[in-house]
Specification:
Helix content: 40-55%
Number of domains: 2
Radius of gyration: 32 Å
Number of strands: 5
CATH superfamily of the largest domain: Ribosomal protein S6/Translation elongation factor EF1B
Structural class: alpha+beta
Distance between the termini: 85 Å
Shape: elongated
Order of helices and strands: EHEEHEEHHH
Strand content: 25-35%
Length: about 160
């Protein structure tokens, strides 16, 4: 089953030709599989090289202080992911990567609205209903409460 993924990859700093070859290598891993049962394991829908570009890393990774950040958007068969991740892990040009399931825009909005609905339901559950409010008002005072009121009234009238 194919699913959309967002794959941010941090490449080591290298000359432009090698960098382009590294990007092409990652694309070929997404689109081609060594396994024979997968004819079309995935397709790259978008490559975003300029969004983050070259950045300083928070800490040194494999002796590198800077890295090229590239976002790959792809539709990949879930059976192909372990092979793809193994290739990324073993490739020297890749410092870090992350494969994230990319939800469609409608699903993101519906997930957000369902969280809001859940919050509204929780608030409604905490507040007493109108029937519960009227029941508490309609309750008759017990004999002890009635006596306490009359004693208080007596004290006030005596003063």
């Amino acid at each position: 089953m194919k699913r959309p993924y967002e794959i941010p990859v941090v490449f080591r700093i290298m000359p432009e030709e090698e960098f382009q070859q590294a990007i092409d290598q990652v694309v070929s891993w997404i689109e081609n599989s060594a396994e024979t049962d997968l004819e079309n394991p995935g397709t790259v829908t978008k490559i975003d090289r300029n969004r983050l570009g070259r950045r300083r890393l928070a800490y040194e990774i494999k002796g590198q202080r800077d890295g090229w950040f590239v976002l790959f958007y792809a539709t990949v068969d879930t059976r192909h992911l372990p092979e793809f991740e193994l290739n990324l892990k073993l490739y020297d040009g890749v410092l870090r990567y992350l494969v994230v399931h990319d939800l469609p825009v409608k699903a993101k909005k519906s997930a957000k609205s369902s969280k809001e609905d859940d919050a509204k339901n929780e608030v409604a559950a905490e507040e007493p209903s109108e029937e519960q409010q009227t029941e508490t008002v309609a309750e008759e005072p017990s004999e002890e409460q009635g006596e306490a009121v009359t004693e208080e009234q007596a004290e006030e009238s005596a003063e």
